């Protein structure tokens, strides 16, 4: 029986054996990740880019491409089909064939088109070569938002991190889920409520454990007064109304959310304070800072950012990622189900 959330993810990914595209194929880390995915069986990797460049880079770095599919963008036998798919999906926005033909040269767009056409299950953009494709977060994410769109009942896509702590007493065998740490800069109360509910359901799906969602603030239960606190209070009420079956509470300071002794003093009437396993941050300043601080100071492994709320799987991995980070994000994409 798998113990950690990563054990569960990898085991399920291996059983599904789905095709996952990696878009930054001029970055050696993606070639290493593709080789490891093929070796472990977590996914059938597809490197999107220029096949000749990929093979030269693999040879120079002694990376085996056995079991790795190469999708050469401009020479792909299904190129015209993918261009037609782009036009079909974006013609209402004014996209014509000539524009689609130019747009699809972007490896992220090509990968998204492959997924929309049913030739891959999802795509991951990890790292980036400053002298090559060099996609920033917006460039990587935009095709997914435009072509996949949000899942039914979801108005906003969001990102989360799985923070795997060394100490198994935290969360699910050491795993805490943080959101939103990479996508939405300053969500409204309505958006923050939806992020909380979506992340709770993601946690439940990936761990099989009951989510206990703490809405994080600089205040605990009215200890501070300010519009930034009011937003979290409103979001908490909205999230509870959206999903009354879930355990959601706040506003909590971080220590109140995760430390039982602090919770007993600051939020004695809460059923989940001190035991939260899902932490929802009020904005990206807070969320992004907290995940990096947890990673660097607590020695946690940060898996992500992982994207939730889309109809098709997509993950954007930090430019500072390792090949193993890309592998894990690809495994998550492989087990993420499509929405109608």
Please tell me about this protein's structure:
It is a single chain. The chain has helices at 5-16, 28-40, 51-60, 79-90, 97-103, 107-116, 137-148, 189-207, 227-242, 254-258, 260-266, 284-298, 323-335, and strands spanning 19-22, 44-49, 69-72, 122-126, 158-164, 175-179, 212-216, 247-252, 278-280, 301-308, 314-317. The chain is of the alpha/beta class. The protein has two domains: 5-149 and 312-335, 3-Layer(aba) Sandwich (Rossmann fold), CATH 3.40.50.10950; 158-301, Isocitrate/Isopropylmalate dehydrogenase-like (Rossmann fold, 3-Layer(aba) Sandwich), CATH 3.40.50. The longest helix has 19 residues, at 189-207. The mean pLDDT is 93.
Feature tags:
single chain, five-stranded parallel beta sheet, alpha/beta, Rossmann fold, 2 domains, 340 residues, 44% helix
Give the gist of this structure.
This protein is α/β, with parallel strands linked by helices.
CATH third-tier fold name of the largest domain = Rossmann fold
Corresponding CATH architecture of the largest domain: 3-Layer(aba) Sandwich
Oligomer, anyone?
A: single chain
Q: Give the DSSP E fraction (strand runs of 2 or more residues).
A: 15-25%
Count of individual beta strands: 11
Summarize the main sheet.
6 strands, mixed
Amount of helix = 40-55%
Q: What is the level 1 CATH name of the largest domain?
A: Alpha Beta
Number of domains: 2
Radius of gyration (Å): 21 Å
What are the secondary-structure elements, in order, as H or E? HEHEHEHHHEHEEHEHEHHEHEEH
Helical segment tally?
13
**Low-pLDDT runs:** none
Query: Structural class of the secondary elements?
Result: alpha/beta
Shape: globular
- The N- and C-terminal alpha carbons lie at a distance of 31 Å
Overall pLDDT level? 93
